[in-house]
Amino acid sequence: MDYSQMGLFIGIALTVGAVVLHFTRGTPWRASEDISKEVLEHRAKSVPETDFPEPMNRSIGGGGAVAAVGGAEGGAELEGGEAAEAEPGPGDIPEDEIEYYEVEFVKEGETIEVANNKPLLDQGEDQGWDLPYACREGSCVSCAGKVSGDANELVEHDNQQMLDENEMSDGYVLTCVAYPRGEFSIETNEAP
Ligand code: FES
């Protein structure tokens, strides 16, 4: 066999080999087993339960389940219509039960009649006075003032979060959420 025959033979052999390889089916692809459920179940056992609803379902039977239960309960309550109603606040006084008190605003130099269904700050502003305030929801002390007596008795706060019992006993009030419950004088812009 000369070189040209040998070359031809090798060429044919390679071609046949390539064609055979091309048509031979390899090992078929199989998806690996889905173990995600198993992993989640294992994780559910190792992650402690939370008793608050989580934004993401961290584990099977975890926060997501609690949130779902809470949501169902919440829905039931809402359907009942009672839980959806807000608690009446100190300003929720029916028209025919509104009372008025004489309150002296010492620094403003005037005594005015204030209603018991409106915060002192609002009623002072109704007079055109530029009284201090910031949050208007009882969570800073910008609007603080001092009344002439025990503020626990003279005003009713609507959810104030800044003054303790002693400070209120000393007469300090947060005028933005303080509803008058008696006659007194008040010094505005006085913080404990
Ligand atoms: S303005 Fe913040 S507590 Fe009254």
TrEMBL record:
Organismal lineage: Archaea, Methanobacteriati, Methanobacteriota, Stenosarchaea group, Halobacteria
Family listed: Belongs to the 2Fe2S plant-type ferredoxin family.
CDD domains named in the record: fer2 (cd00207)
Chain ranges of the 2Fe-2S ferredoxin-type domain: 101-192
Transmembrane segment boundaries: 6-24
InterPro entries per record: 2Fe-2S_ferredoxin-like_sf, 2Fe-2S_ferredoxin-type, Beta-grasp_dom_sf, Fd_pln
Keyword ATP-binding: no
Protein name: 2Fe-2S iron-sulfur cluster-binding protein
Gene3D superfamilies linked to this entry: 3.10.20.30
